[in-house]
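Posting this for the archive.
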Amino acid sequence: MTEPTALQPFPEDWERALAVVPHPDDLEYGGAAAVAAWTRAGKHVAYLLLTRGEAGIDSMPPEECARVRTAEQIASAAVVGVTDVEFLDHRDGMLTYGLDLRRDIAAAIRRHRPELVVAVNHRETYGGTFLNMADHRIAGQATIDAVRDAGNRWVFPELLDAGLEPWGGVRHLAVIASPQPTHAVDVTDTFDLGVESLRRHAAYLAGLGDPDPEAFLRANAEATAERFDGRLGVAFELLGI
C-alpha cells in the first residue's frame, strides 16, 4: 500500500483572509484552531456566513434558531480572535448555485480584499466515507468561482456601481475538510482554543445529542499529525490561483 503523501506547511505569505462557509459551526468543526494560530500571528481573518443556520435544529423554530445560532457564531469567532463576522441571509438548506450567490461572495471578497480565501469542501463526499451536504458543495464551488469573479471588472459590473472595485489579490485558495489535503497548519498551541470555539455552539451541539467537541477535533488533528511530522494539525487543500 502506498503511504499517504506528507502534508506541507501552510503558506504564511499573506496578511488578510476571508473564510466563506454556509452555516454557523462549519469553521469550528475543524478550522477554528488554525484560525486561532493565524490571528495569534497577527493576521486578520474575517468570516462570511452565507446563512444563519436557521434549519439546523429540529426542535427550534427557524426564526429563533437563526437568532441563537447567529449569537453562537459571533461568540465562537471571538474565542479565536475573529471579530469581523458577516451574514448574507441566504436560506439554510436551500442554497442554490448561480449568479446571485457568486455575486454576493464576489462582493464580499472585494469588500474584504483578502490574500487568502478559505472555502468548504465542494466535493460529493468526505473521502468516500460519507456524503457531503448540498449547502457545502454549493457554497464551496461558488466560493471558488467567486475568487475569479472578484477580480474581473466586467463580471457583475453592478458591483462597480456600488463602489466595489475589482480585487485580484487572492494569492491562496484553501479548501477546509477536503478529502484531498495538501497542506496543514500546526495547531499544537491553539488546539484548545479550537475546542472552546466549538463548545460555544451549545444549542446546536445539544440538538445533535451533545457530542464531545474535544474528542472529535482531537481525532481529526491526530489523523493530520500522521502526515505532518507528528504535529497536531488542521489540513487544507490548496488550489492553484
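The chain has a mean pLDDT of 96. Residues 8-239 form a domain with the Rossmann fold fold (CATH 3.40.50.10320).
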